[in-house]
Amino acid sequence: MTEVMSHFNYLVVVVLMMIGFYIVISGSNLVKKVVGLSIFQVSVFLLYISMGKIIGGTAPILDDRFTVYSNPLPHVLILTAIVVGVATTALAGALIVRINEAYGSIEEDEIYRQDGDA
Amino acid sequence: MTLFPAVVEAHLAVLLIVVPLIAAPLCSLLRRESLAWIFAAAVSVVCLALAVAILGQVMANGPIAYEMGGWASPWGIEFRIDRLNAFVLVIVSAIAAVVMWYAHGSVRAEIGGDQQPHYYTLYLLCLTGLLGVTATGDAFNLFVFLEISSLSSYVLISLGAGRDRRALTAAFTYLVMGTIGATFYVIGIGLLYMVTGTLNMADLAVRLAPLADNTTVLAGFAFIMVGLSLKLALFPLHLWLPNAYTYAPSAVTAFLAATATKVAVYVLLRFLFTVFGTDYLFEELTLNGFLLPLAVIAMFIPSLVAIFQTNIKRMLAYSSVAQLGYMVLGLSFASITGVTATVIHLFNHAVTKGGLFMALGAVLLRTGGVSLQNMAGLGRQMPLTMAAFVVGGFSLIGVPTTVGFISKWYLILAALEDGRWPIAFLILASSLLAVIYIWRVVEVAYFQPALEGRKIEEAPLSYLIPTWLLIGASLYFGVDATYTLEVAGSAAAHLMGNGG
Amino acid sequence: MTAHDAILLSLSIPLAGAGLIALFGVRPNLRETVTLITAGALFATVATLYPVVTAGELPSVTLFEMLPGLSISFEVEPLGMMFALIASFLWIVTTIYAIGYMRGHHEENQTRFYAFFAIAIAATMGVAFAGNMLTLFIFYEILTLSTFPLVTHAGTDEAKRAGRVYLGILLGTSIGLQLLAMIATWAIAGTLEFQEGGILDGNITGPAVGILLAMYVFGIGKAAVMPFHRWLPAAMVAPTPVSALLHAVAVVKAGVFTVLKVTVYIFGIDFLRNLDVTQWLQIAAAATIVLGSLVAMTKDNLKARLAYSTISQLGYVVLGAMLVTPLAIVGSGMHIAMHAFGKITLFFCAGAIMVASHKSEISQMRGLGRAMPYTMAAFFIGSLSIIGLPPMGGLWSKWYLVLGALDAQQVWLVVVLMLSSVLNIAYLLPIPFRAFFSTPNGDTETAGIKEAPTACLIAIGITSVGCIVLFLFPDAVYNLLQPITGP
Predict the structure, then answer these.
(1) How much is the average pLDDT of C99-123?
(2) Same domain, yes or no, for C207 and C306?
């Protein structure tokens, strides 16, 4: 049990990831899909951020008082990944707006039905 | 022989990325579409020249290692270009330059309006991303470039909405699938980083070597494989591709079909052979037991599906999925001949499919559609376009004197060297499926009379010249394949040899 | 003109001709003049190589390297020399014939017809002179593709269906089996050059030899070994000049020629003779001979009957190759020549009948001999040559094939050859006999039918005389071919 608890951050990541993934797959509303996609991505951000953390460590500022630092690199990486994630979400939102204009719906079933007729 | 002054020669690797990256936003400032086109075309030609110069340098002096901003590797981001990615850089930038020529008329006809400068902006961004993915030696940097190219390609595909609204849903589906793929890749990289503490590919390779039994590494490998397979549309993870290619504007389809999946194949090669290494993957994990059947299925099922398509663009899209099966098949042999086959097919399929999609764009322009019925009588009405289509089709089949033949030759040779006769036979049997789907089009185009009262002219030169440039290349390199094979062969040997 | 130039010219003359034909398409007279001049120039060029080859030289040209270690190269050896001579000579004759036929039949798209015809001839020259298997294969495939528009010339649904069968079988066998066999050969021997004594000896043993040889023999679909023969009857929807030159001479002979080349220069006679793997292929060839003849008897359509006759006759050549005795090999080679003249005569006659009387079924041809005496006389000559009776050239090739079979101690094959000759008599000779000696019955009115166009008759005359000349001077062919079996 302690083995699991000491890695609880992974547990959170996995649970979040599965929740996000499930929403992407099962949701038929396009906005919900994007929400799921965001949760999915955020879980990965957490994976990176938590792995850089060292218990008792502090921000990597060179000072005589500190000897233990957290690894800053994953944080920096995730800063980039967040930007990418925001861009993806924004683009997905824009596409949904256009889809709504074109189909008058953002429900996947309805869209497929319309294209089936077309 | 140097193309550029010494200062430029020293910074070729970074210039190749920076030039289109800076040009992209500038391009969106140009309000006139002709200006934007001229600017973007000039940039793409410069990129091609840079890529050719890089290939020249690499062939002459060995791999280039460029440290970004002077930060030493493995801490800083490093661009590392050997024969393999130099070759891919040339393929991508050459296709980009040719398609750019084609884009002018095609974009005006299919996108139109004030969205045209945006097209060129995104095109350059996409090019930046693809070149970056190819050039970089840093695993996380690769993700960033991958997303630059993916995000811009989602938009490029959605630009087809002016003609058919299904482009929007196709782009959305691609976005969801592509993002999942990219995120899987990031997870994999994260897991590898946990174990090794490095993101530099060459450094990763060194540090991973003694960690063969580590489950985290294994999990990381699995995530990376799935993520990349999504990006390269390896069957059965190809579902985004047919719609995306079908509804995107012709110039976008031609460009993406010829470059995007090819770059993903390159990344797969890089990870399999440089980062993880053959000893680990193919001898301990017996990965070929997994890749080989997958590749064979990928050769057959999409080809069978292609036979039943009435939309020719979709038919070619399925054919692309099948062709990716050939590439994965080649690398799954894990031999120099096999990897050579993959690399040469990367090039060969890029020129062939690019040319085919451009020919279809001309059909779309003149007949207003790309379904089988639109092709009726075009053999007479658009002889040059259809001749290009037929030659491209021959190359998909693998008829001698086309590049497709060279690819098949090496694939079969690799299969035979591996003692796999049945596979060799299956490769040929699957080419015969290509005969069927190409011949359906030929029969309609050449034997059915043109629709009543339909007057159709040959496509304009701005379509024909780029189309024939690629189709001509697929003939030229099909007859004289010594140079491309030298590059591909030495790239493969280098990749398999020392893992660097 | 050096031999080197002559080889390159014989490839480029027909290609240039095709270009000029396309250029002058709007002016039929000029276009056909160009075709004739091209054919004449080609034959003259090929003929200059003849003394060089008979002197024992093997002129060769290497164009460039296509794949590392594999070049596009040409080498003229006796077998190819003979094939090129026949094909280029008969092209002249066929052109004369085609002018009469195509005009008499009011065919459309004649420019396309003549242009692709010339390309097909260029491909045939490439096959004949190929210096290695890769070069041969490339021209073999070009030949397939360039004849496709000729087969589907009519553009009807029937032509389209026939085109599918044609292309499906020829591409299917060549890509599915022949290409695989070739790449396997490359992987095993490390070369694809045609060499005296073969390239496989010592590199491969056991049943693999048999499998490889079978892959070649069946993979060369143009040789029409059963069960891959269906394309040939299908190809008969083409205009008769195509059936005559391409599907009785150039294309099918390219097939059996390739079989011979593979036997002699890839495997090597000495290598194969000591193995019994050829047994099964002899049986396949023998079955093709007999079954082809039997099916021919059931056909009422004249061209279909001739097509099955061709399938049967191609079996002779394959059989000779699979016997791998020197006499049988020479007999095979001679049969390429003898059958070419005989069968082209028969096809010319079939076409002439079609143009003059619009009859295509044999049952309608009773009494036709009175209206078309020259045509029917030529048909008789051609039939005799196919059967192998004197005074026609066909006698000699069968003679050597029988000797070869005896040499190999395969007496049952002698029986097969004899049986086939009897069958040939049964399906060929009744046609001219009924034409001359039966009276036309009610629905087959012959009144008002005139002899075929003069251009057709000239062509028929030339090939009929050819059959007789080959009987009188067979040693020219024999002496040319004799060196291929080795010293």
Answers:
(1) 82
(2) no
Give how far C177 is from chain B: nearest CA, Å: 8
The total of structural domains in chain C comes to 2
A92 contacts B169? CB cut-off 8 A: no
pLDDT of residue C373: 82
For residues B134 and B270, is the Cβ–Cβ distance under 8 A? no
Token pair in block for residue B214: 């580590």
Which of the listed ranges B5-14, B59-68, B160-169, B463-472 does the model predict with the highest average pLDDT? B463-472
pLDDT tens profile C68-98: 888 888 988 888 888 999 899 888 888 888 8
**For range B408-433, the mean pLDDT:** 89
* Chain centroid, CA C100 distance in Å: 22
Q: What is the CATH T-level fold of the domain A2-117, as seen in this structure? A: Helix Hairpins (1.10.287)
Residues of chain C contacting residue B482, judged by C-beta atoms under 8 Å apart: 65-68
C253 token code pair: 């002979």
> Is B75 contained in some domain?
no
Q: Which domain holds residue B338?
A: 286-500
Last residue of a domain, one of C222, C239, C268: C268
Q: Answer whether B143 sits within 8 Å of A81, measured CB to CB.
A: yes
Asked whether residue C184 falls in the same domain as residue C40, the answer is yes
Looking at the complex, report in whole angstroms how far the Cα of residue B492 sits from the nearest Cα belonging to chain C.
Answer: 15
pLDDT-wise least confident of A80-84, B131-135, C391-395:
C391-395
Q: What six digits make up the tokens of B486?
A: 């030298």
Q: Which residues of B touch C186 (CB under 8 A)?
A: 413
Question: Hey, are the CB atoms on C183 and B417 less than 8 Å from each other?
Answer: no
Chain B residues 430-449 with CB within 8 Å of chain A: none
The per-residue pLDDT for C408 is 82
Residue C453, CB-side half-sphere exposure with 13 Å CA sphere: 17
Which of C244, C268, C292 is where one domain is finished? C268
**Residue B272 belongs to a domain:** no
Question: Could you say which of C141, C179, C187 has the minimum Cβ distance to residue B417?
Answer: C187
Are residues C351 and C261 part of one domain? no
- C66 CB neighbours in chain B (<8 A) are 479-482
Query: What pLDDT is stored for residue B153 in this prediction?
Result: 93
A-chain CB neighbours of B165 within 8 Å are 99, 102-103
Whether the pLDDT of residue C443 is over 80: the answer is no
Nearest to A44 among B168, B187, B193 (CB): B187
Polymer length in residues for chain A: 118
Q: C383 with C428: CB under 8 angstroms?
A: yes
Are B64 and B80 a contacting pair, CB within 8 Å? Answer: yes
Task: List CB contacts (< 8 A) between B409 and chain C.
Answer: 67, 183
Q: Which of C66, C164, C176 sits opposite B480 (nearest CB)?
A: C66
| Residue C275 CB-half CA count within 13 A | 24
Averaged pLDDT, B402-419:
90
B304 part of contact set with chain A, CB < 8 Å: no
Q: Is A84 on the interface with B (CB under 8 A)?
A: yes
Q: Is residue B118 part of a domain?
A: no
**Nearest one of C338, C334, C398 to C79, comparing CA atoms:** C334
Q: In chain A, what are the domain boundaries?
A: 2-117
Whether B218 and chain A come into contact, CB under 8 Å, resolves to no
Q: How far is the C-alpha of B192 from the C-alpha of A81, rounded, in Å? A: 17
CA distance A45 to chain B (A): 9
Give just the sign of the alpha carbon dihedral B130, B136, B139, B143: negative
- Burial class of residue B210 (count of CB atoms within 10 Å of its CB; 0-12, 13-18, 19+): exposed
Closest among B195, B111, B106, B212 to B160, alpha carbons compared: B111
C299: left (phi over 0), alpha (psi -120 to 50) or beta: beta
Same domain, C241 and C294: no
| Structural domain span for residue C477 | 276-487
Considering just the CA atoms, what is the radius of gyration of chain A in Å?
Answer: 20
